[in-house]
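Dear support,

I submitted the protein below through the web form. The confirmation email said the job was done, but the results page showed an empty box. After a refresh the structure appeared. I'm attaching both so you can tell me whether what I see now is the final result or a partial one.
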Amino acid sequence: MNKWIAPLCILLCFQAQATEYRFSYSELYSKLKYSLNEEYTSVGTGVYFINPTTQLPCSIEKSWMEKEAHYETLSFPESGKLPLPLDGNLKSANPLVYVHTDSTTQCDYSVALVANEPYALDIHSDYLEVVIPEFQLLLEDISGMFSSWFAPTISGITLEFIKLETGEVTLSNNQTLPITGHRAHITLADLEDGVVATLPTSPSRIMPYIQQ
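What the results page shows now:
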């Protein structure tokens, strides 16, 4: 079933049973353009198709852009991030973007704040001191005017490990942080006094953490 997907608000997801998603390039560009802002050197936004049960990326059968005689295949990485090239000429041409997911899976289309790759296996406080403020500014930028009054405070990072459901992040002070449901959280408080967090494997993505 072909289905137009309406513009979505950042951090919101909608379910659809269609195996084919169709977007205009300009619609996606409006959500991903923040990644081009020079103010954000370490973070940006990404479009994902997520299994609502596992909260992991859906299996993508194929994806492409097309307009008239022009056609370009898009190859999804393991992280599940839509690999859309951001280009002013493409924005003007405004091709259609298609994504085919596994027909047996009902996916959520979502836009997320993510740290730029590549990701190191050792996480220092210096890294959090860069990405946390940028995540906060990006969240407020996306949310619009007066957002700083209402936006939640980002206190750390969330690490997602697609191939690791449970495990531990090792801290250099002989403490550990749990990995549960493929995710672990690290705050600045965890890395005080020069403590370093060592990851068991490279994360698929790093997102903001809002402490409850």
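Response: this is the final, complete result; the empty box was a page-load delay. Residues 1-18 have pLDDT under 50 and may be disordered.
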